[in-house]
User: What shape does this take?
Amino acid sequence: MLEVRVRHAFEDFAVDATFDAPPGITVLFGRSGSGKTTIVNAVAGLLSPDAGRIVSGDRVLLDTEHKVSLKPHRRRLGYIFQEGRLFPHLTVRQNLAYGAWFASKDAPGEEMGRVVEILGIGALLDRRPGALSGGEKQRVAIGRALLSAPRLILADEPLAALDEARKAEILPYFERLRDEVAIPILYVSHAASEVARLATTVVALEAGRVIAQGPAADVLGNPAVLPAGAREAGAMLTARVVAHHADGLSELEAGGISLFLPRVAQPAGSMLRVRIAAHDVILSRGRPEGLSALNILPGTVTEIRPGDGPGAIVALETAAGRVLARITRRSADTLGLTAGMPVHAVVKTVSIASSDIGTSTA
Amino acid sequence: MGGWLGPDEWQAVALSLQVSLWATVVSLPLSIFVAYALARWSFPGKQVLNGLVHLPLILPPVVTGYLLLLVMGTRGPVGGVLAEFGIVFAFRWTGAALAAGIMAFPLMVRAIRLSIEAVDPKLEQASATLGASPAWVFLTVTLPMALPGIIAGSILAFAKAMGEFGATITFVSNIPGQTRTIPSAIYAFLQVPGGEGSAMKLVIVSVVVAMSALLLSEVIGRRVADRVGGK
Assistant: This one.
């Protein structure tokens, strides 16, 4: 468990955030300039906040009231930077061993062979970072952080510098970290789909303040919390793979509702997270007939939040979980939507991209 | 080489190499320290230190030599104290090395400072988050990454020390076998009739040493830069 309380004023901007990060991945979710990196750097000790208290497990890393502030090299953390920051003069093997060399010998660390295997970097060990692709660099950076026997892992937008294909290559490794490594991971992101796939806990930030925190499905399904803007809104469902059909679809089940997705790789019985982007959801008052869309989720309107523009976000409670729909205010008026009204959420199968689907342990 | 060069000429060459090597090796750690301080720390008097380091580059070498004589001579404030402990610079080869080292110092510091400034502080931060104390950050990241500049600076300093004349002759005179380095020897040979032949041989040696130093620094620099550049 990581407890963070940070207050820091810059010339034109102030951060004042308090949150807890339980085991798993806690995503600091917000636009650029919302204070995410400031908070992570304060946890790492690369920035000295005006005031704050940061406790990792039973170790106090920072307590300005009692004038405690551990130097970065004593904080026992693994920091995965956006740009990798591999040491260019060392080979991949030496980069990986770098942190382990400084870790105390009794520290329970990951074993080099296992990390190399998880990350699939065995063939790169004798190369130098200059000869690696962006995705390879980032995998090595993850390994280097893991092998330093950290009590806490920090990741500052580790995928932001990569293209979509490389992101898709790295995301599964973070899912494995979340599910297989017992230490807390503090992960900075401004991308909603990344948050939906990875987050155990979401801390939503706006202008340096925490506007919501809690389990990922709760925060992402809250129409009042849109740290990345209404366009990025979308709820997250947890569903179980039931069957793979011959026509290229996979059938999932969530709360008794069948969901059809483009073929997923996971075998029947696996649990998946599925992000349903709010702008991909159509609302219908009656059960629609003669419609090409395959996914129809009956539910009840819980909240309607009109936006500044022509749109509104409608929150529904369905048996599969919370769903958000982004529709126009005109449609909301035409349908006469009010809280408590039964509606059907319609989601096209093909609108769910593979980047919206991730593994889940829940 | 001893056959081609006469004993006097060979003596000057050997002495020059000895003086320049010592001047370079002894001033290297201090240069790295000063270069790091100038590159990475802010402290009161930083500009004064920077000025002092560069002074030998701007002052007439004779003035530097005379100041050395005043301060480091056996009756000077520092030289007098050191003489009590048996450390004498005046009119010794050690004094020639000191003069050469001081004249070469600004060149060495400049090259190393530039290379330290080119090391991305973000890599040093990454090193610290991985558990490296500031001393280890310096030894495992900053120093190896600044290596091309350190090598280039050292070779430049060595070449400068080989050619040092004004400060040396003012501080430690021109004593054969003790302080008569190649430039002083050339100067001396040119003062006596029939010395042009010896002077020319030393001129050739100077050119060869200078060119070799340049080539060596190119080759080593490129190889190290490739390594540090991650190729």
